[in-house]
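User: Could you write out the 3D structure of this protein bound to S-adenosylmethionine? I've included everything you need below.
Assistant: Certainly. Input first, then the structure.
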Amino acid sequence: MSPIRAGTALPTSPPDSGDFEKTVRDWREFDRKTEATEYQGVAIYRNEFWTSKQRAGHPLHEISYRACFKPQLPGFFIDRLTQEGEAVFDPFMGRGTTVLEARLKGRRAMGSDINPLSRILLNPRLTPPSIDAIGARIKAIDFSAPTQTPDELLVFYHPDTLRQICALREYLLGKTSAGTLDNVDEWIRMVAVNRLSGHSSGFFSVYSLPPNQAVSLKAQARINTRRKQTPPSRNVPTLILKKSRSLLRHPPPPEMATSPLLFNAPSHNIPEIENASVSLVVTSPPFLDVVDYQGDNWLRGWFCGIDMAAIPVANHRSIDDWTDFTRQTFQELARITRPGGHVAFEVGEVRGGKVALEETVLKAVQGLAFRPVLVLINDQKFTKTANCWGVANNSKGTNTNRIVLLQKT
Ligand SMILES: C[S@@+](CC[C@H](N)C(=O)[O-])C[C@H]1O[C@@H](n2cnc3c(N)ncnc32)[C@H](O)[C@@H]1O
């Protein structure tokens, strides 16, 4: 792939860190004054900066992924620190919240993740097919005759449902190896991946954990015993169509001259991206060893033919290792971010709030070509709905997003 160029329309008057800081300091949208403190000369601002209401986002975001953030988080920075056409990037894109939000806002959307599952989840939502094309393709797929149905999966599925899932899986893997998988197939795969297991009748499985976290076969057997449940029959094509309608209920992203760029690479080395080509990075790395991305995605990996255990997902036990990993990521971000551009680096809460990763980030970037602008703490009460979309509540029913904002010098 050839290196990419910067976004088409660089702003005539570049968005300014000072204006951003003033907005944050004067923020009163939810009737609260911003609290200001500081850490080693860097201002820390705390308030509720974006709403916790799930419905405020575009429905195309409504797929689940472990430790995803809400679209309002990248939206807050994209709106204020970039203009249309500029490149916005996420090196830990997950389900692709930053990348999709950038695309919806007419920015050049760029993202990467070490797990190939990310591209599978995101790519078809950047340029979604029509519901008619999806319906026609579903009609054309033979859901009745798989060559194999792994019996161990019967702890999740009714035998008829498992047959349909396996038939669809074989169809998709066959088209992938033949190189004939198109955007409609990719859409169907993305929706199916999101329906594999969950806690309501909208999923293929019997009651299980929320969809961003597939439990082991043994754990599912225990859930079945405890709840005295056996998997009910669920119709795979019907559920895919239903979820597709829901995801597509609002207009798609605008047409753009530049196409999105997605990579499957480690955050410290993404050579396809040209130097100084990105205006804004909004990202959230793995927080130490808090989330087991391989384990939680094992069922999705099976469906997509990905060996999750072979993916070198970052999983650091010690703060020192995490600091090194973060620094290496920032070295790459220093290469690809244009002078004056920004990085918004979200670190959430770990170890019950006892470890302040935002301070670790500030330490990790010392000596690199970045100037700390501020730390923004979004402090909000969560609804129950937010929890099942993959955001962990703490015991008090509140949680924070902690974002270190840096400017490329
Ligand atoms: C906190 S999640 C990001 C979630 C994302 N913000 C979203 O809204 O979906 C962190 C992501 O980092 C990815 N990851 C882990 N190690 C990585 C590495 N070394 N390089 C790139 N991505 C990595 C994981 O696969 C996971 O998707």
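The chain has two domains: 17-114+260-292+314-408, 131-247.
User: Perfect, thank you.
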